[in-house]
Amino acid sequence: MQTKISEKFTTLFGCSGDFFASAGRINLIGEQTDYNGGFVFPGAIDKGIMAEIKLNGTNKVCAYSLDLDEYVEFGLAEEDAPSQSWSRYIFGVCREIIKRGGEISGFNTVFAGDVPLGAGMSSSAALESTFAFALNHLFNLGIDKFELARIGQSTEHNYCGVKCGIMDQFASVFGKKGQLMRLDCKTMEYKYYPFHPEGYRLVLLDSVVKHELASSAYNKRRESCERAAAAIRERHPEVEFLRDANREWLDEVKDSISEEDYMRAEYVIDEVARVLDVCDALERDDYETVGEKMYETHYGMSRLYEVSCEELDFLNNIARECGVTGSRVMGGGFGGCTINLVKNELYVPFIEKAKAAFTQRFGHEPKVYDVVISDGARKL
Ligand code: GLA
Fold first, then answer.
1. In angstroms, what is the span from residue 162 Cα to ligand 1's centroid?
2. How many CA atoms lie within 13 A of 364 on its CB side?
3. Are strands 190-194 and 70-75 parallel, antiparallel or unpaired?
4. Which residues have CB under 8 Å from 260's CB, separation 6+?
5. Could you tell which of 34, 211, 264 is best to mutate to test the pocket of ligand 1, judged by most ligand atoms within 8 Å of the CB?
6. Cβ(168) to ligand 1 under 6 A?
7. Choosing from 80, 114, 144, 168, which is the catalytic residue?
8. Rounded to whole angstroms, how far apart are CA atoms 128 and 283?
9. Does residue 375's CB lie within 6 angstroms of at least one atom of ligand 1?
10. Taking a C-beta distance cutoff of 8 angstroms, is the pair 355, 314 a contact?
11. What is the dihedral of CA 79, 170, 275, 157, to 10 degrees?
């Protein structure tokens, strides 16, 4: 990938620049909890974005996406926002840096990536983190890593219409080879967990389905959670986020919130607890419990939070039938992947069965990605 980027950069700009990269992510457990102040358990993966960048001494960004074969130029003022969706991520990162007082100017860039788009592995966070990290380095801005992650998150909020939490950008900025991270999204305390499950493998099955309106449905889920938290807060002022509540307090407001908001909150409160259970289980190398919790998450995401779909439920059922230890829909939902914790000896029969049955039912194969936990944002 680096050679192709470099060749294109030389052709377009007649010089060479510095290389930066960042990663997509997986999440073992803790889904839809980040914007509820809860816990998440992600790690960066060996699929990411790579960019060559050189300052150009103007106030213009000249950006080329190798994968899409598209070239865009834009200025750095708010009214210069480009329309192509990929370039809005880069523009948003520049604007969010400027809003925070960072002095930056124009640059030339060519970038490419191998995070499957729309698969729930956060290709957009990888793109944001690459540029946030690179601009911080090239302009010597001294922005800390948390703020780099927040720059990516604000880019999603303000330039891409997704009111996401901090998990994806955190994972892609803080990710380390071989380590998952437990992040408390309320206090931002985090801990690295070496993850080498002896006798097991983590594998993603990509349904290759991307549902339209996923981002507006995601934003709606977030609003439901905020309404439920606000209702509970009236009785229990210490509740800032749903993470601070419990099932008992939720039941006290059952009649004053909609059935839908109740279901969403029920899922979130249970999911926050599941992450802590998984952490305990990991301390004991108890992967059977980790797996059980993953199935519980899937059930909740499917029936209570309603962000699964037929294809993902199907893949989850096959995992169960094959005796896979844990399986669930990963990420924002509405398509994308299941993440599966599978015993080594079941790996081949599971993948074969999943491919055959899925193809028979939906007319195409799911894609298979072995998870390799890798480094996040870095200079190459
Ligand atoms: C998307 C968002 C994250 C998180 C997950 C669900 O990936 O970007 O902030 O909310 O969905 O856990």
1. 10
2. 9
3. unpaired
4. 224
5. 34
6. yes
7. 168
8. 33
9. no
10. no
11. 0
Q: How far is residue 253's CA from residue 257's CA, in Å, rounded to a whole number?
A: 7
User: What's the pLDDT score for residue 117?
Assistant: 85
Query: Cα of 163 to ligand 1 centre, how many Å?
Result: 9
| Gap between the Cα atoms of 206 and 228, Å rounded | 32
Q: How far apart are CA 14 and CA 356, in angstroms?
A: 49
Which pLDDT score is estimated for 348? 98
Give dist(CA 209, CA 218) in Å, integer. 16
Q: Is 32 in the pocket of ligand 1 (CB under 6 A)?
A: yes
SS3 label, residue 333: coil
pTM for this structure? 0.96
For atom 1 of ligand 1, which residue has the closest CA?
Answer: 332
The backbone region for 112, taken as left when phi is positive above 0, alpha when psi lies in -120 to 50, beta otherwise, is beta
**Residue 212: what pLDDT?**
65
**Averaged pLDDT, groups of 10, the chain, 380 residues long:** 97 98 98 98 97 97 97 98 94 98 98 91 96 98 98 97 96 97 97 93 94 83 98 98 98 98 98 96 95 98 97 98 98 94 98 98 97 96
CB-CB contact of 132 with 152 (8 Å):
yes
Atom 8 in ligand 1: residue holding the nearest Cα = 164
Q: What is the DSSP string of 215-258?
A: HHHHHHHHHHHHHHHHHHHHH-TT-SSGGG--HHHHHHTGGGS-
Question: Phi, psi at residue 304, to the nearest 5°?
Answer: -100, -45
Q: How far is residue 81 from each of residues 151, 277, 307, 355, measured CA to CA in Å?
A: 16, 44, 31, 42
Q: Is position 184 annotated as part of the catalytic site?
A: no
